[in-house]
Amino acid sequence: MATAIIAIMAGIAVPLLADMSGSIKLGDATRNVERELQAARLKAVSSNQTMRMRFNCPGAGKYRMTELVGTPKVPVAADIAADRCVLASYPYPGDADRNPLTRPNGDGPLRTLDSSVTFTTTTTIEFWPDGSAHTDTGGVNPWPPIAGAGYTITLTRNGKTKSIVVNGVGKIQIQ
Question: Which 8-state DSSP code applies to residue 109?
Fold first, then answer.
């Protein structure tokens, strides 16, 4: 009788623990992305350089903070290159000399989501030295500030989602 009760309890507990483990992975991934967004904004303000957060770059589930090469109004073609998140082309850490002619030298490391978590919305976000946040709305430079209630970055795991909202003044919040 006791064995049957233990088996029933284990049958109930195992799926709950698996679900809880998945929720923890999704929450950790969301917090890590939010921290990287905060770091990009802080770096833009403290270094007086425009920084971008790129998602699914160079592949699904990867993200990276990159220093804008050029200016928001006139980005250099290298900044738009498909390999902008490839460490062989743009290593981390970058040049330590801080010479603006050898930029980018403020790129962050390439980050990877847990393999069970995916981005479902992934537009590059640009942080300016004044802390404001901008997104590309159709190839017009400079990118306009994020409008209204903000831009939502959504992470998904097994049908469950968590969101991070970034608004035009650079406020970043997990929802």
Answer: -
Closest CA to 174 of 21, 27, 54, 61: 27
- The one-digit pLDDT tens for each residue of the chain (175 residues) are 777 676 665 566 556 555 567 689 999 999 999 999 999 999 999 999 999 999 999 999 999 999 998 899 998 888 877 888 998 888 887 655 566 566 677 899 999 999 999 998 779 999 999 999 999 887 789 999 999 899 999 999 999 999 999 999 999 999 9
3-class DSSP assignment, residue 172: strand
Measured between its terminal Cα atoms, the distance across the chain in Å is 46
Query: What CATH topology corresponds to 2-174?
Result: minor pseudopilin epsh fold (3.55.40)
Distance CA 171, CA 41 (A): 9
Q: What is the domain partition of the chain in residue ranges?
A: 2-174
Residues 6+ apart with CB under 8 A from 101: none
Rounded Cα–Cα distance for residues 124 and 140 (Å): 14
Prediction pTM value: 0.85
